[in-house]
């Protein structure tokens, strides 16, 4: 399908109060004009919808864990081998003597990614875990 990149202008009506809040918000986020902020909001919603529909997406899974728990490190390695077909890359950072940060980039259906990463988050010694889903 040929992409339609033609720019279309359209008018938006809203209450003054709502617009003031919106302007304040986008200013804080560093936008210099409303159009780009609105385009980003729409893109964000479209990604959310794709994810709800369980379409293929990417997952950025990050967590901190207790390196001193040897059995945990083994469980985390087993997890990655078990799901090797969904894992694109892994970055490991030794934070300090006792803690590690791991960032795993994954590919798959949103529901599956949520399910398998929730399991990791339930492991004892895994902290501050977060899965961010994104799609084109
Ligand atoms: Ni480490």
Automatic annotation (TrEMBL):
SUPFAM superfamilies documented for this protein: ACT-like (SSF55021), Ribbon-helix-helix (SSF47598)
Domain Transcription factor NikR nickel binding C-terminal, chain residue ranges per copy: 59-134
Binding locations of Ni(2+): 81, 92, 94, 100
GO molecular function list: DNA binding; DNA-binding transcription factor activity; nickel cation binding
Keywords: DNA-binding, Metal-binding, Nickel, Transcription, Transcription regulation
Pfam families according to UniProt: NikR_C, RHH_1
Gene Ontology biological-process entries: response to nickel cation
PANTHER family given in the database record: NICKEL-RESPONSIVE REGULATOR
Name of protein: Putative nickel-responsive regulator
Origin species: Kryptobacter tengchongensis
């Amino acid at each position: 399908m040929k992409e339609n990149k033609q720019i279309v202008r359209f008018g938006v009506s809203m209450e003054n109060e709502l617009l003031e809040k919106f302007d304040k918000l986008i200013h804080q986020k560093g936008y210099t004009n409303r159009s780009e902020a609105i385009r980003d909001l729409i893109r964000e919603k479209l990604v959310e919808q794709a994810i709800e529909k369980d379409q293929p997406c990417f997952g950025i899974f990050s967590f901190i864990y207790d390196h001193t728990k040897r059995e945990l490190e083994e469980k985390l390695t087993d997890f990655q081998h078990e799901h090797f077909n969904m894992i694109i890359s892994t970055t490991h950072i030794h934070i300090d003597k006792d803690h590690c940060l791991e960032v795993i980039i994954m590919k798959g259906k949103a529901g599956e990614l949520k399910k398998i990463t929730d399991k990791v988050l339930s492991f004892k010694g895994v902290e501050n875990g977060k899965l961010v889903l994104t799609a084109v």
